[in-house]
Amino acid sequence: MSDLNVNGALTRRRGATLRAATVRAANGDSATGTASLVDGDVSLHDGQRTRESFLELAAAKSEKKKRRVEVGDRLSCHKAQESLLSSASGYRNYRGVINWCVVMLVLSNARLFLENILKYGILVDPIQVISLFLNDPYSWPAACLLIVSNVFILVALYTERQLSKGSLSEFAGFLVHCINLSILLTFPAAVVLWVPSMTSVGGAIALGFYTILFLKLYSYEDVNRWCREQSTAKAKKLSRSLSCPSSQQFKGGEQKVCYPGNLTIKDMYYFVLAPTLCYELNFPRSPKIRIQFLLRRLFEMLFFIQLLVFLTQQWMVPIIQSSMKPLEDMDLSLMTERLLRLAVPNHLLWLMFFYWFFHSTMNFTAELLRFGDRQFYNDWWNSESVTYFWQNWNIPVHKWCLRHFYKPLLRKGFSKMFSQSAVFFLSAFFHEYLVSVPLRMFRLWAFTGMMAQLPLAWLVGRFLRGNYGNAAVWISIIIGQPFAVLMYVHDYYVMNYGDGDLLPLTLLDEQ
Amino acid sequence: MSDLNVNGALTRRRGATLRAATVRAANGDSATGTASLVDGDVSLHDGQRTRESFLELAAAKSEKKKRRVEVGDRLSCHKAQESLLSSASGYRNYRGVINWCVVMLVLSNARLFLENILKYGILVDPIQVISLFLNDPYSWPAACLLIVSNVFILVALYTERQLSKGSLSEFAGFLVHCINLSILLTFPAAVVLWVPSMTSVGGAIALGFYTILFLKLYSYEDVNRWCREQSTAKAKKLSRSLSCPSSQQFKGGEQKVCYPGNLTIKDMYYFVLAPTLCYELNFPRSPKIRIQFLLRRLFEMLFFIQLLVFLTQQWMVPIIQSSMKPLEDMDLSLMTERLLRLAVPNHLLWLMFFYWFFHSTMNFTAELLRFGDRQFYNDWWNSESVTYFWQNWNIPVHKWCLRHFYKPLLRKGFSKMFSQSAVFFLSAFFHEYLVSVPLRMFRLWAFTGMMAQLPLAWLVGRFLRGNYGNAAVWISIIIGQPFAVLMYVHDYYVMNYGDGDLLPLTLLDEQ
C-alpha cells in the first residue's frame, strides 16, 4: 500500500511540476528581443524564447523591424498574471524548501553545539566510562554472568538430544525446558539485584544478553519440536520428509542437515552467535566474507560507539542534570522546556544507536559468520502508522514474536486483537525487565510506555494518514523516549542522591 | 534549465521507487502461507502474496498440503538478502526523512519559544512601537516629507508636458529631470540627517518611499522620451505608430491611450501608486476587484505586521542586546554563537516580511487599483545560483534595473560583465542609502554586503550545482543578513549608548 502511495504522490507532484512549467512558459512571454536577463544563467523557457526571437528577426532581414519590436517591447513590459503564491497561479514547486529545512537544522544544531561547549567546556571523561562497568576492579560480575550462560545453552542442547533419541518423554522435555528458561530469566535478575559490585550499565548488558538467549532457546525448543512432529507425521504417512527439503530448493552447494543431525554443539553455538532470534536447521549463508564490507562495518562500530559516548557525556548528561530541579518542583513550563531540550540529543543518540547496532554491528557479525539474511530492519522511517513502525524497526524481534508467539496464539484459536495485545504485553514486560532490574527500582514507566503504544496506534491509525501519520510516528518517537528517560533518571537521582544533593552542575543552569 | 532538472530528478526518484518496490517484492517472498504479519496494516506485496497463496491452497483442495506448506514455512524463515542501508540493496526511499526534518524544526523552535518566554517574560510593548515613529507628538517630519514628494511628481509631469508640446528642448528637459531627480534623493536625506525629531524608523520609511519614487520618475522620463523618439521616427517614415499598438493586441475592452494622451495627473498618480517601478502607457488591468481576495490580503497584512512586531520585540531584541558584549570584546566563539542564534529569528522575520510586503501588500494594492501584473516575485526559493536569487526575489526592482539600467548600458556598448557589476553597484548604493542615512552613521556594511554578492555569485556558480547550489544560496541568505544586522546594531549602540552603558537586559544573559 505504501509503495502505491509513493508512486501516486510522485505522479501528482510531476503533474504539478508540468503545470508549473506551463505557468513559467506563459510568464516568459515578456522576455523577448535581446539578452533578456542580467547574466547567462537564465531559465529554459526564457532562453529558448530569446533564441527563437533572434531566428525570427534574422529571417525578416529587417534591422528597422527589429528596432521596432525592441522599442515596442521596451514600452510594454507588463503582463496580466497572478503571483506564484496565489492559489490561482497553480504553482506548486517548492523543492527548495527541503534544502531550507536541512540548512536550518544544521545551523540550529551548530549553534546548540557551540552554546554547549561555551557553557560547559569539554565534559568528556573516558575514566568515567570505565567506572560505569566496574565498581570493583577485582570483581567482574557481568562477565561472570556471561560465562555462566553456557550452562543454559548446553542444558537446552542435551535435553533436545534426549528428546530426539526418545529417551525423554515430550512432557518431561517440555518441563525441563520450562525450568531451564525460567531460571535463565530469574537467575541473572537476582544476581544483578543483589550483587553489590554490579553496576547499572553492566547489569543492563548482562540482562540484555540473557533476554536474547531466552528468545533464542525458546525458538530452538519450538523448532526442534516441530521437526519431531513432522517426522512422526512422515513416519505415519510415509510421505516425503519436509524437515530437510530437497537440495534443488537451495542455491548454495552446501550440504543441508536434517533433524536430528542439527543437534550438535557447533550448530548450537552458530545459532547463539548469529544475528537472529529464530532458529532454523539450514540458515541461508553468504558465499564468502567480503573483507572490505567487514572493515567498513568495523570502522562504523568503533566510530559510532565513540560518538555515542562523547555526545552522552557532553550533551545528554548536562541537560538531564539541569532537569532535576524543575522535575522535583513540578514546574510544568520549565519541565516542558527541558523535555524538548532533551528530545533532540536523545533522538539523535537513538538514531546513532540504531545504526550502530542494527546496521554496523549486526552486519559485522553476519559477515563474519557468513549469515545470509541481513534484514535486521525495514523502512520504518517511512512508517505511516505506529504498528508499521513496531513491525519494521527491529526485524529479529518482530520475526520471533510472529513465529513463536503471535501465530501459535492464533492457531490456538485466540482472536487477532487479543494476540496482538499479548505481543505488546510481552514486549512491555521485557522492556521493564531490562530497565527496572539494572536500576534496582520498579516504576513501570517502560511498561506503561510500551502498553501506551496500543491506544496510540489506534488513534494514529484512525485519524491520520500518509505524511501526517508519518509525522505523528516521528513525534511519538522523538517525544516519547525522552519522557520515559527523564522519569527514570529523575527517580534514580532522587533515590540515590536524595533531595537537594544533586550534582553541582544542576545549579549552574538555573537563574 | 531548472524545470528540466526538476523533471529529470523526479524521473530518477521514480526509478528509485520502482527499484525499491522490486526489492520489497523480492523481500516479500518469505511471507507465504497464513496471515503473515501482526495486524492487517501490511504492505501491498505481502498482502497480495497472502491472498494469492490462499487461492492456490484452495485450488489444491488439500488440507494436508496446506499443513505441510505451513510447517515448511515455519521451519525456514530466513532468506539471503542485504540490509536496506547497505549500498548493495539498491534501496533509496527516504521520503519519511522530509517529515523528520519538519518535526525536528517545529520541536526545536517550540523549545526556543518556551525558553525565551521563561527567560525574558513577555517583552511586547505597543507604546514602544509608537515611539519608534514619533519623538515629538507635535512634529511629524516623515509624514511631511511624504506630502512634499508631490512637488517632485508634478515637476516631472509638467516637464514632460512641455516636452511633448515642443516648448522645451530635449536637452533642457533632460536637465530639468536631472535636477528634479537629484533633489528628490538629496533633499529627504538632508531632512532625515538634520531634523532632530526624525526617528530612525520614520526616516527609513520616508527614504524608502523617496527611493521608490526616484525609480518610478526615472522610468517615467525614459518611457516618455522613447515615445517621442518613436513619434519622430514615425513622422519621418510615415509608418504605423507603435507607441499605441492596435487594439486587437489587447484582450481587455478598455480604451488605450497614445502619447501624449497619457500625460495626465490621473495617469501619473495611478503609476505612482501602482506596485511597479516601470512606467507603461497602458498597464494590463484586471477585469474587476475580487472582494474576497482583497479581504484575505488585508487580513494577512494586519496579521503579519503584528507578528513581525511581536517577534522583533520578543525574540530579536534580547538576542541583539546580549550580543553587544561579545562584539565589544571581540570574543570570536561567543560572537559566532550569538550570530547563529540571531540567524534563525532574523531569517524567519525576513521570510515573513517578504510575504507581507511582496505578496500581501503588493497584491492588495494591485487588486485595489485593478493592476493586472502580479509577478512581484518569482520562485527564488528554488534558486541554484546567487544571480538567480537576485533576479527573482524582487521582480519590480529587477525589471527596472533590466529595462532602465542594464539594457541601456548594453546598447551603449558596455560589456555584460561591466553592466552586471554596475547593477550591483547601484543596488549597493541604494542599500547603503536606505540604512546609513536613517541611522545617521556611515559604515558601508550594507554596501559591502551587496558588492560581496558578485564574488559569491561567481564562487557558487563555479563550484556548486543543483541542490548544493540551492543550499549555498540559503546559507548566504540565512547567515549573511544577521551578520550585517549585528554590525550595524553594534555600531549604533556603541555610538548612542557608549561603552558599558547598554540596556540592563544585556547583563542578564551573561554568565
TrEMBL record, chains A, B:
Active site: H431
Reaction it catalyzes: 2,3-di-(9Z)-octadecenoyl-sn-glycerol + (9Z)-octadecenoyl-CoA = 1,2,3-tri-(9Z-octadecenoyl)-glycerol + CoA; 1-O-(9Z-octadecyl)-3-(9Z-octadecenoyl)-glycerol + (9Z)-octadecenoyl-CoA = 1-O-(9Z-octadecenyl)-2,3-di-(9Z-octadecenoyl)glycerol + CoA; all-trans-retinol + an acyl-CoA = an all-trans-retinyl ester + CoA; 1-(9Z-octadecenoyl)-glycerol + (9Z)-octadecenoyl-CoA = 1,2-di-(9Z-octadecenoyl)-glycerol + CoA
GO biological process: triglyceride biosynthetic process
Major place of residence: endoplasmic reticulum
Pathway: Lipid metabolism; glycerolipid metabolism
Keywords (A to Z) from UniProt: Acyltransferase, Endoplasmic reticulum, Membrane, Transferase, Transmembrane, Transmembrane helix
Highest taxon of source: Eukaryota
Localization, UniProt: Endoplasmic reticulum membrane
Membrane topology of the entry: Multi-pass membrane protein
Pfam families: MBOAT
Signal peptide bounds: none
Family statement: Belongs to the membrane-bound acyltransferase family. Sterol o-acyltransferase subfamily.
Subunit organization: Homodimer or homotetramer; both forms have similar enzymatic activities.
PANTHER family: O-ACYLTRANSFERASE (PTHR10408:SF18), STEROL O-ACYLTRANSFERASE (PTHR10408)
Protein's recorded name: O-acyltransferase
Organism listed in the record: Poecilia formosa
